[in-house]
Amino acid sequence: SKLTSFLAIDLGASSGRAILGTIRNNKLEMKEVNRFANPIIEVNGRLFWDLFHLYREIVKSLKEIQLQGIEIASIGIDTWGVDFVSFGTDGEPLRMPYSYRDTRTFSAPEKFFSKVLSKKETYMKTGIQIMNFNSLFQLFTQQEENNPIYPITDKFLFMPDALSYLLTNKMVTEYTIASTSQLLNPFTRSFDNELLQTLGLSEEKFAPIVFPGTEIGTLSESVQRETHMGAVPVVAVAGHDTASAVIATPAENEHFAYLSSGTWSLMGIESKEPVVTEETFSLNFTNEGGADGSIRLLKNICGMWLIEQCKKEWTLERNISYDDIVREATQSEPFRCFINPDASCFASPESMINEIRNYCRETGQHVPQTIGEIARCIYESLAFRYKQVLNNLKELADFPIETLHIIGGGSQNKMLNQFTANAIGTTVVAGPSEATAIGNILLQAKASGVVADKSEMRQMVRNSVDLARFEPQETDLWKEKYSEYLNVYKEL
Ligand code: LFR
């Protein structure tokens, strides 16, 4: 009979995991097979990802599955967006991929707009929010700095595609991950040749575009030999983690917004068509590709990155968990100081704690000292930032937004979920925390005919996980404090 187990490899910008999903009686059962760190690696001032470390952890996950005697129908890989690997004409990687946090692209958009194409034309062509690390600006930076591998790159493969290639020896460009690059036309879902030309590139520098559900290939002979597995198919899922997460939103109807909460907070709605207008341009909203052909109209908000980076520093002094951090925040006095989470000083700072303190000092606010004070400042500011962006979405949506679904690892933070409900004045439904892996698994299940469509997938998520509801409280107080936040937001 048909195999109903699938392996999701889900790589985030701080950790990766291999999750086995099995579908039984319309329910998804999940089991973590492997979890590993994926740190940004700084070498002489430049930031990289360790491609081969990720590859080895994937192979290790396969061995583990094999040891446990589990038979899987397929494997799917999703990762964070925009980053890519350069391959030479011999099919070998030319160097480790740069991380999108590398500061060399910080001034690239302005340079690109003055030298090549205006900001507005760039947006109107792609519908992608302007962010300095988009693949477009990374490639432009390599061209500008005469990066020695740029002219000899035969193929650029985005992260999930590069890893699938290492497993199968087959090259593809999966549509959702490519949609994050700012190189695609969102209406035709193909590369914009004019944009490629400005970079001195053509479509031949990329593998053919495929859509979620396409089989990329089977495990190569060398991987089969090493893992003792058979010719298991590797399937293109939604290679972009956010696209995999959004498809797993346990929504019962279409009247919702989602907040995919991890290192980033991605807040948006599903749209049938791209929305590329004056309004989305000025609000800087993105039109990324959805796993089912819909458009993810969303905005990047600096998310748990703020707290992750602080935790890294706190850990140098004592052992501290996220639960400890939330507990200390709960015990701190509310509404003492706010930050704009998306201020550029927080994008890749040497010390996040110092940046937050400086920000508060420069805006004439209380300068947070303790772990609890800093964490409280981050969580309250995020809740207010969510309100700001949700207000924009309410204007863009042609339907009423009745529920905010918070999905991803950040949805486990009950304090932040409650803060968010209070700030936005709308019901929050939290979970699943493993939305990305679930979406990855369900897209494989769909490819093999085990589930039919998006609504069946979402029904299955609701059958399989516990969701938590948060109703707004103290809304008058939160409204009053929102205007204080806005004043700070405007100041810097
Ligand atoms: C989330 C995410 C975002 C993308 C950012 C950088 O993990 O994929 O969607 O904008 O990482 O690639």
From TrEMBL:
Any one annotated GO CC term = cytosol
Q: Which UniProt keywords apply?
A: ATP-binding, Disulfide bond, Kinase, Nucleotide-binding, Rhamnose metabolism, Transferase
Q: Which domain of life is it from?
A: Bacteria
Which residue range or ranges hold the Carbohydrate kinase FGGY C-terminal domain? 257-447
Domain spans labelled Carbohydrate kinase FGGY N-terminal: 7-247
- Range of residues in the leader sequence: none
- Enzyme nomenclature, EC number: 2.7.1.5
Q: Name one GO molecular function term.
A: rhamnulokinase activity
Which CDD domains does the protein's record reference? Answer: ASKHA_NBD_FGGY_RhaB-like
GO BP: glycerol metabolic process; rhamnose catabolic process
Family classification: Belongs to the FGGY kinase family.
Specify the protein name: Rhamnulokinase
* Protein's organism: Petrimonas mucosa
Quote the gene name from the UniProt entry: rhaB
